[in-house]
Design a protein that fits this description.
Radius of gyration of chain A: 28 Å
Number of strands of chain A: 2
Oligomer: heterodimer
Number of strands of chain B: 15
Number of domains of chain A: 2
CATH topology of the largest domain in chain B: D-Maltodextrin-Binding Protein, domain 2
Structural class of chain B: alpha/beta
Distance between the termini of chain A: 23 Å
Strand content of chain B: 15-25%
Largest sheet of chain A: 2 strands, antiparallel
CATH superfamily of the largest domain in chain A: MetI-like
CATH topology of the largest domain in chain A: MetI-like fold
Helix content of chain A: over 70%
Strand order of the largest sheet of chain A: 1-2
Strand content of chain A: under 5%
CATH class of the largest domain in chain A: Mainly Alpha
Distance between the termini of chain B: 62 Å
Helix content of chain B: 40-55%
Largest sheet of chain B: 7 strands, mixed
Shape of chain B: globular
Structural class of chain A: mainly alpha
CATH architecture of the largest domain in chain B: 3-Layer(aba) Sandwich
Radius of gyration of chain B: 25 Å
């Protein structure tokens, strides 16, 4: 939204601007509403969280446990609630009576309260409540939020009213995304790091262990590097083959061929089939008496245990990832359609053959899209776990034969958490994985400067 | 206007907080005189319906207790319990998997069982620290299933029915060879036998590594030192030899497909589609797979005892219903559990469970449970399962060793190259020993 400054200054003046403080207040209100609703539902006997509790939804668990008088020191929680309500009240009063001319200062002050009171309390509770205190990270995460908001509030004072209006609107629209990021990404991320500091062997109570889990991960005899190596090989294979395959298919589908719509659909379809069904299908295809082996056998070859031989597992499941890359094909097709025809035509006039046109024009013009696809599929494939779980398990009593080469890092993480019940160690693996993917992404970004070509100069 | 909205919001928030606090403080009082408890279990649609019917019957007969069914996915049980334990929301009662039991008992999450009548058999007790911390809800053990028609067709004598007369390993391999045929009709004894195009295998073993313990024990080894569970002896010569023998069934003799490579999930498919003459599986398969296959597809099967590598053993184990600690109504939970196990008769009737009391295995007058239509002929079943159970059954390791799940997970990976012949069992187990020890110590 952009409001011209000169058009209706009176109208704008007549409005009480929505202050950033109010936004913060709304955040807290939402938090309070959720908690209160949960409490009411719980007390009324409908155990809605138990029925619908998604696995690993730590936040709801935290709310349920600490907002309800289920266990340890609920009053502490209420104290923090009253405290946040007090802050909302404070903010409201400061607007009403305009006691502070610089609102940024007020917010900065609140941020400091967070920094010096809420964070120490959180850290304190971390050690105090049998180690379950990390559940306080939801509260902790408000501190940086506040500091962030106070920073942007200060910025608000500089430009004109219209810009302020605009940034205000932007912030309102950012709230849902912001909430999602906070609760689904930042809190779990911080919590994972917190849990990784504990020796938490379910069903035993957690004990603080410092960095032992992380150190153990990198120590000798640990599965970690083996799994990482395996995952990296798989990811690179899947990404590389996926890029080549999708490029070829996209080039073919961009031509005016008969039944183009049908083929487009056909190649996109694997992407929307539920992964678990795809895996089941491939389990049958790769089986000892499956399609591929029957064909091999028909020509007199020896049957291959695709999913049991170390040499064939990685390529076999990389092929599944390639087969499922329908979304990449669609993005590539859109990219191809965006290459200015004039480039190709003038190159043709200059005598460039098809190969030159592809290599010198199509590929550079497509490089931002290739980069995006590479980044996304690298991140996705580094987290591969479904093939390990789907292609090996089976039998009445969880009967499985799991070769080493099926133990991707995410699989180790899953097994550590939910088979061995070692939540602390699992969190450490998770954290290690996060750092690893971060490093790979950074490498990709750094090298991209060498080969990335933006038509028209690139992003600012 | 905005101010008003904001003020209203603030008011609503305060109200909600107040209500939340007041309501929370008022909570926990329970709802009247009826003890509300939960029962967590897993099963397919039919089982869920059956359990619900049982709970309805219980609730009707016990007006002071109300049990709510809490069905979960079996594969997810560890995940779910882990989450619930982390948040202090364990069910009052529920089914438990064997590998988790000792650890959960050790951590104090399982109430010790009490019995008014006969105590269940020792072989299904879970033992920790000199205490019996839990008992399986039934007895199930490994048995040798065989297809009578295929044996008759090949002219091979049926598997023996008693521990004393069990096949030794060579006799077993011989029989399996006589029952393995390639597409040209040559059996595995023949010089022309083509092991790459086998039509019917003599034998198949479910790729569940916990069952391998039976072979190691039979050969005089084992997974763990019986006097000290933390002493892993799986790489002892006897244990490694036993596991190598299993691998050699495929690698050397060609009488079994490579361990773990069949996609079929259940034993009835092995018999009906994958073409196998004998297979070892738990006795639960009588009710779950074999008898339905017999009734619906005409599978003509019976049971025998496992081959012996020296000591005739079968492995007994079963899931268990437990009372979780922290229940608000422990008495009600205990009462329900006792009733539940007592009234699970239909599971025995249809051949999935066997009773858990010694007298029902030794006293002929109490053996009517094994004479229903679901079971194979009593003449075979009595010696090959009932008497065999009394004389030869040993508890699977998770009855007295904690952390079995990561151990078995580690073991499954360590043995993968053994099944493919890349490593010998001795090499693989020697190499894996430190990891196995780490896993078992948790």
């Amino acid at each position: 939204m952009s409001v011209p400054v000169t058009n209706a200054p009176e109208k704008i003046n007549s409005k009480k601007p929505i202050d950033i403080l109010k936004l913060t207040g709304i955040l807290y209100i939402l938090f309070a509403v959720i908690t209160a609703a949960v409490a009411i539902i719980h007390v009324s006997g409908i155990n809605i969280l138990r029925e619908f509790m998604p696995q690993g939804f730590v936040f709801l668990n935290a709310v349920r446990n600490y907002a309800l008088p289920a266990g340890v020191m609920p009053y502490f929680f209420y104290f923090l609630f009253i405290f946040s309500a007090f802050r909302v009240f404070l903010g409201y009063m400061s607007i009403k009576f305009r006691t502070t001319p610089d609102k940024g200062k007020t917010l900065g002050f609140l941020g400091k309260i967070d920094l010096w009171i809420v964070i120490p309390l959180t850290v304190f509770s971390l050690f105090f409540f049998d180690g379950f205190g990390f559940m306080w990270f939801p509260i902790l995460s408000y501190a940086p939020t506040m500091l962030l908001l106070s920073g942007s509030a200060k910025l608000d004072n500089r430009p004109g009213r219209a810009a302020r209006e605009e940034s205000r609107t932007a912030k309102i629209f950012l709230i849902p995304a912001f909430l999602g990021l906070t609760f689904m990404t930042y809190i779990p991320l911080t919590a994972v790091f917190g849990i990784s500091l504990f020796n938490w062997h379910i069903p035993f109570a957690p004990e603080f262990a410092g960095f032992r889990n992380l150190i153990d991960l990198f120590s000798e005899g640990s599965f970690f590097w083996g799994s990482v190596w395996l995952t990296v090989i798989y990811a690179f294979l899947a990404v590389f083959l996926g890029l080549v395959y999708s490029m070829i298919i996209a080039l073919l589908l961009n031509r005016k061929i008969p039944g183009r719509v049908f083929f487009r659909t056909a190649f996109y379809l694997p992407f929307i089939i539920p992964v678990v069904s795809s895996m089941l299908i491939f389990r049958l295809i790769y089986a000892h008496n499956g399609v591929i082996n029957n064909i091999i056998n028909m020509f007199g070859g020896e049957r291959v245990h695709f999913l049991f031989e170390n040499a064939t597992i990685i390529p076999a499941i990389a092929m599944i990832a390639v087969w499922m890359s329908g979304n990449i094909i669609v993005i590539k097709m859109a990219g191809l359609a965006n290459i200015p025809r004039s480039y190709l035509e003038s190159a043709e006039v200059d005598g460039a053959n098809a190969w030159h046109r592809f290599w010198k024009i199509t590929i550079p013009c497509m490089s931002p899209i290739i980069f995006y696809n590479m980044l996304m599929s690298l991140i996705t494939n580094m987290q591969v776990v479904i093939p390990s779980l789907m292609l090996t398990s089976g039998g009445q009593s969880g009967a499985t034969v799991i070769p080493r080469s099926f133990r991707f890092i995410a699989y180790e993480l899953y097994m550590t958490a939910f088979s061995a019940g070692q939540l602390g160690r699992a969190a450490a693996i998770s954290f290690g994985m996060f750092v690893l993917i971060g490093i790979l992404t950074a490498i990709l970004f750094l090298t991209s400067r060498k080969w990335l070509f933006y038509e028209g100069g690139g992003p600012a | 206007m905005k101010k008003k909205v904001f003020r209203t919001l603030a008011l609503v928030m305060s109200m909600l907080m107040l209500v939340g606090i007041v309501a929370s403080c008022a909570g926990g009082g329970g709802s009247g005189d009826v003890a509300e408890i939960t029962y967590m279990f897993w099963g397919d649609e039919n089982e869920v319906r059956e359990v619900q019917e049982m709970l309805d019957a219980f609730n009707e007969a016990h007006p002071h207790i109300h049990v709510t069914a809490w069905p979960v996915d079996r594969a997810e049980i560890a995940t779910i319990l882990t989450n619930l334990a982390a948040s202090g929301e364990l069910p009052d009662t529920g089914f438990m998997t064997e590998p988790l039991t000792i650890g959960w008992a050790q951590a104090g999450f399982i109430e010790a069982p009490t019995f008014t009548g006969e105590t269940p058999r020792d072989v299904i007790s879970f033992r920790w620290d000199g205490q019996k911390v839990a008992y399986s809800s039934c007895v199930v053990q490994l048995a040798m299933y065989y297809d009578i028609d295929r044996f008759d067709g090949a002219g091979v004598a049926y598997p023996p029915k008693t521990g004393a007369t069990a096949w030794d390993w060579d006799a077993f391999v011989n029989a399996a060879k006589s029952l393995t045929f390639d597409v040209n009709g040559n059996n595995a004894h023949s010089a022309d036998f083509d092991r790459n195009s086998v039509e019917q295998y003599g034998f198949y073993l479910e790729p569940a590594v916990w069952q391998l313990e039976a072979w190691t024990l039979s050969n005089g080894g084992g997974f763990f030192n019986p006097n000290d569970w933390s002493d892993v002896i799986i790489n002892s010569a006897a244990s490694a030899e036993a596991i190598q023998r299993i691998a050699d069934l495929h690698l050397v003799h060609g009488v079994m497909p490579r361990y773990g490579t069949w996609p079929a999930d259940s034993i009835d498919t092995w018999f009906l589609e994958e073409n196998v003459a004998m297979a070892i599986n738990g006795t639960w398969s009588i009710g779950v797979w074999m008898s339905p296959a017999r009734d619906n597809h005409g599978l003509n099967y019976s049971v025998g005892v496992l081959p012996s590598m020296g000591r005739a053993v079968t492995m007994a184990t079963a899931g268990l219903a437990v009372q979780y600690a922290g229940s608000k109504h422990p008495e009600a939970a205990a009462e329900f559990l006792a009733w539940y196990v007592q009234n699970s008769g239909h599971l025995i009737e249809i051949g999935i469970w066997m009773p858990r009391y010694q007298s029902m295995f030794t006293d002929e007058s109490k053996m009517d449970w094994a004479k229903t239509e679901a079971y194979p002929s009593f003449d075979d079943f009595r010696p090959a399962v009932i008497d065999y159970s009394v004389n030869n059954a040993v508890s699977a390791a998770w009855h007295w060793v904690p952390n079995m799940e990561p151990f078995l997970d580690e073991l499954a990976s360590a043995l993968a190259p053994v099944w493919s012949g890349e490593q010998t069992a001795q090499e693989a187990l020697d190499a894996a020993k430190p990891a196995l020890e780490r896993a078992i110590k948790g």
